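ugh ok fine here u go
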Amino acid sequence: MWYWVLAGCGVVIICVLAVIALRLQLKVRALKQQRRQQQLALEQAERDQRQRINKSIQIIAQGVSADQLTLTEGAIRIKVLLDSLGVDEAVRREYVAFYQLAKATDHIPILAEWKKLTLKKRLAFDSEREQLEGQYRDFIMDAAKRIRGKTF
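structure:
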């Protein structure tokens, strides 16, 4: 008699544990599916961001080629965008002109700091920038031409 009661309790306990295990397994499966969807969404967002950055590089390179912005501004912007893409050393070497002009002019204040300068300082920095742009012009124009149509 006690044997049947214990066996019945055992069956009930096993059934309850099986239901709990099944529910937990379903939760784990749902979490894995949610993580996969989040991972796919993150990967898509990263691809979209890379595409936007690549498009920006193309627009800036076109602007440099068409003299729509200064060589310094174009070089700085393209350098920053390439760095944000995490390009490898080979790409940095291929477009070293952007990196060199950006480095040569990185001491020149921009934005709010530029506005704080006196007219005399601004003219001096403009003169220095124009001299550097003259030195790098052919290299920058060549790099802007070569980078057009490329994606990273």
